[in-house]
Write a structure and sequence with these properties.
mainly alpha; 67% helix
Amino acid sequence: MGKKFGGKKHATHKAGLSAEEIFDDAEIAFMQDDFDTARSKYIQALKLEPENPEFLSAYGAFLSETGSRDEAVSVLRKAAEVQPDAGFEKYMYLGQLLHGELAEAALRRGVDILRVDLDRSNALIASPDTEDELASHRAALSSQLSSSLCCLAEEVMSSAAAAAEEAGGLGPEAAARLTSAVEPLLAEARALDPASPEPFQNAAQLALQCGRADAAADLLRQSLGLWYRPGADEGGDEGGGDADEEEDLGSEDSGSGAGAGDEPEPPSFEFRFETARLLLELDVERDSTLGVLGGLLEENDGVPSVHLLLAEALTRGGEYDDALEAAEEGLAAAAALGREGAEPDVVTSLEELREELRELMRHGPAEPMEEGSQPAL
């Protein structure tokens, strides 16, 4: 919950609690994963102050996080109507919930608000007593704007990918247009937060989408170097073709910011999953791929798609026994989630890979495959 400013009086509930106090209770319940209580409290607060933009934005965020998409869109749009020129978060959530031009427009609005907020913060003159607080505030805004620019870049790339699929591919002119639209966003994001791996990973996605696999691999290595530090048990010479290229991704000599004395904050689960997916698609940095996936499973072994990526990576290395175990663990995780929780495409891919691995294993043990080659699945 953010700091409350001003002395505005809030409506009072019949039990004696103000709307602000009920809202605070909702926020606490949300943080504690008590979703039923949180929903009830948000609704109570909004009954007392239905036009409160803070309440609307927070309730919309809650709904989007808990799966109520249509209701979330409705509440967030109302929040935007009540307070269109402040509060970037509602627009970022709308950008995730909407599609196509509507999503891009929402994200651009959120980015514009953050730019204004950062400009205002930079224009302030701090006193000795407030210098540290203001510097921290500016750094937070810069990080938020960098991340929001990356979200906008992802949406532009996603729209271009959908258009390319309809057109039968991304032609040279379309690739040039996409690059000219996305690269300035990512350059701004990198300048705002040089320590963030997100702009580099987005740039890798852009390069791959435009058919520049070598550039994509280099950019992804730069992203990895900002946060990934291989564990002592992840060494070895597997995938030896990249041994020179993989030189101490997290060392001080690499200039990565993840030096030997640092412990960089790991990116989100979703970001690291995308890292592993890109590494697997590019077929590079095999040890890093396995290390990232191992970290994800250590954090949460109930995500079937992570098991699928691990099974695919192990299959490419000829480790069919381990790959089969990973596929079976993925199917077990899907069964635990049930029909509503598991993605049907992931379950189908796991089932197909399991059968293909069983067929491969019937022909006897296979030699490990060199990186860059594919099993005859």
